[in-house]
Amino acid sequence: MFGKPLAGHQAIAFKLADMQTKIRAVRLLTYEVAWMKDRGVRVTEAGARAKLYASEVANEVTHDAVQVLGGRGYMKDYPVERHYRDARVTKIYEGTSEIQRLVISRGIVRESAESAGEDGRAPGVVEGSRPVAG
Ligand SMILES: Cc1cc2nc3c(=O)[nH]c(=O)nc-3n(C[C@H](O)[C@H](O)[C@H](O)COP(=O)(O)OP(=O)(O)OC[C@H]3O[C@@H](n4cnc5c(N)ncnc54)[C@H](O)[C@@H]3O)c2cc1C
């Protein structure tokens, strides 16, 4: 288009970079939960984080994918419109995004209170929110 491939346009290229970065971040959150589960660690909040962000990213990325392809992305000739529609329900089933946020925020408050009670540190030092790797 306009003498070069779509990805040759910087606005599209940046979108692709953001899309891939989000997908990889979600993959790491998912691997984190699996890693914790394998070790018998409680995964209530980590599972909610992975489910929440995977749903958000699925919606953002498929939305952008339709946009990148323009009218072709909207038509049934290409699978992108199907991915876009399929992504929408992930914010609803298996726990809506709002409920995942409730689970995560309650975990933050609980861990913060626990850590303050244990060693007298100020609330806000949340051990369970640290990355498991690194
Ligand atoms: C395609 C599809 C397949 C499904 N498959 C299954 C299945 O196999 N098994 C099964 O058991 N269920 C299944 N469901 C049901 C699904 O789990 C529920 O739709 C989902 O849990 C949301 O419940 P609800 O529809 O009653 O919405 P409601 O609970 O009425 O929620 C409506 C809105 O209010 C928000 N909300 C509710 N409570 C709060 C709160 N306390 N704080 C903030 N916001 C809140 C919700 O996030 C949502 O946005 C399926 C649904 C769909 C669409």
The proportion of residues in beta strands is under 5%
Identify the CATH architecture: Up-down Bundle
The figure for the number of domains is 1
Distance between the termini: 44 Å
Element order, helices and strands? HHHHH
Number of helical segments?
5
Radius of gyration: 19 Å
Bound molecules: flavin-adenine dinucleotide
The secondary-structure class comes to: mainly alpha
Largest sheet: none
CATH superfamily: Butyryl-CoA Dehydrogenase, subunit A, domain 3
Low-confidence stretches: none
DSSP E strands, number: 0
**What is the CATH topology?**
Butyryl-CoA Dehydrogenase, subunit A, domain 3
CATH top level label: Mainly Alpha
Question: How does the overall form come out from the CA principal axes?
Answer: elongated
Mean pLDDT: 90
How would you characterize this protein structure?
With 134 residues, the protein is an all-alpha fold. The chain has a single domain (7-120), classed as Butyryl-CoA Dehydrogenase, subunit A, domain 3 (Up-down Bundle). The chain is built from 5 helices and no strands. α2 (44-69) packs antiparallel against α5. The chain is elongated, with a radius of gyration of 19 Å. Flavin-adenine dinucleotide binds at residues 89, 92-93, 96, 98-99, 102.
Please specify the SSE layout and strand pairing.
Layout (H helix, E strand, L loop, with lengths): L9 H29 L5 H26 L1 H4 L5 H9 L8 H23 L15
Helix pairs in contact: 1-2, 2-4, 2-5
The structure holds flavin-adenine dinucleotide.
Q: Can you give keywords for this protein?
A:
binds flavin-adenine dinucleotide, 134 residues, elongated, mainly alpha, 5 helices, Butyryl-CoA Dehydrogenase, subunit A, domain 3, 68% helix
